[in-house]
Specification:
The protein is mostly helical and about 325 residues long. It is built from 14 helices and two strands; from the N terminus they run αααααααββααααααα. Strands 1-2 form a two-stranded antiparallel ribbon. A hairpin with a 2-residue loop joins β1 and β2. The mean pLDDT is about 85. This is ABC transporter permease.
């Protein structure tokens, strides 16, 4: 197991270095940080002093190594737009995005897996066809349109749920949570559905196709020949083997939910990292953009490692293969 984890970490190092190079390129070749920080009117002495303070007068490779060292310590400099440390902004906005991603993932799994199992077991029923039609709608409609339609129905017409913001939050140390307030839960409903709907339909269709394939396999036919009950066959054998490839997709989709929550956070003005990134792009706030890029890459690397470990634990063939 240790060798397996070590090999995955070693494979992740070149990926993170490549992402760090791209993020460093944003600093070096996009925009003019001196003009952004000093404004339109500044003296030559002020410019030279800031260039020296930022280390822009040093060779590129020295700047890159210093950038990597600072990134490992969680230091990404000051935001050009807000004049605050980027690490503080990330820590401030991360709870909102992570709570939204968690709720969206729970919605996708809690609804998508049962729907996939049902449509796989009862594929000719009218309810299964309704579920499949619903999944086509979820896959076809863009995220921003789903969010706008939900706001129109549940916020404008019915007035049941808020259309923007995070509601009231409670501060627990550095973490701000909306899970402890009623308005926080109400504010989570529409963004969670909007963000999780595509993943829900994807999981449903994947579970359905895997379930249909497993039910046609020889060991399921043998289990029926032995006289096992349908419930035991469906949930003790078929579903367990169906979930092996689902783990991979769910893990990658969780990373996608965190990385691509930008549209949902913009539609609902959710105060998370995605909205911070959009605001930074509009003002060419390079330190925030670079930090976001590195953070999302680290999230995907971590999720891939966790998925590999779960795959290793669930599928005995991998352990047997490494044993030989």
């Amino acid at each position: 197991m240790f060798a397996f984890i070590l090999s995955r970490i070693l494979q992740a190092i070149p990926v993170m270095l490549a992402v760090a190079l791209i993020a460093f390129g944003l600093f070096s070749f996009v925009g003019d940080p001196i003009a952004t920080m000093l404004g339109q009117e500044f003296s030559v002495q002020q410019r030279d002093a800031l260039v020296a303070a930022l280390g822009l007068d040093q060779p590129i490779w020295v700047q890159f190594l210093r950038f990597i060292g600072n990134a490992l310590r969680g230091e990404f400099g000051l935001s050009y737009r807000l004049s605050r440390p980027v690490a503080d902004l990330i820590v401030e906005r991360a709870p909102a995005t992570l709570e939204l991603a968690l709720c969206a993932s729970v919605v996708a799994l809690a609804v998508g897996v049962p729907m996939g199992v049902y449509t796989g077991l009862y594929r000719r029923s009218w309810l299964s066809r309704a579920f499949l039609t619903f999944s086509l709608v979820g896959v076809s409609l863009p995220t921003f349109l789903i969010g706008i339609l939900l706001i129109l129905v549940f916020s404008v017409w019915l007035g049941w749920l808020p259309s923007f913001g995070r509601g009231d939050t409670v501060q627990l140390g550095w973490w701000s949570t909306g899970f402890l307030t009623a308005s926080g839960w109400k504010a989570l409903v529409l963004p969670s559905i909007t963000l999780g709907l595509f993943q829900l339909t994807l999981i449903m269709r994947l579970v359905r196709s895997e379930m249909l394939e497993v039910l046609r396999s020889d060991y399921v036919k043998f289990a029926r020949a032995r006289g096992l009950r349908d419930r035991s066959i469906h949930f003790g054998h078929a579903l367990r083997n169906t979930l092996v490839p689902v783990i991979t997709i769910v893990g990658l989709q969780l990373g996608s939910i965190i990385a691509f929550s930008i549209v949902t956070e913009t539609v609902f003005q959710w105060p998370g990292m995605g909205l911070l990134f959009i605001q930074s792009v509009s003002s060419a706030d390079i330190p925030v953009m670079a930090a976001y890029l590195l953070l999302i890459a680290a999230v995907f690397v971590l999720i891939n490692l966790i998925v590999d470990l779960l795959y290793y634990a669930v599928d005995p063939r991998l352990r047997a293969g490494r044993g030989h």
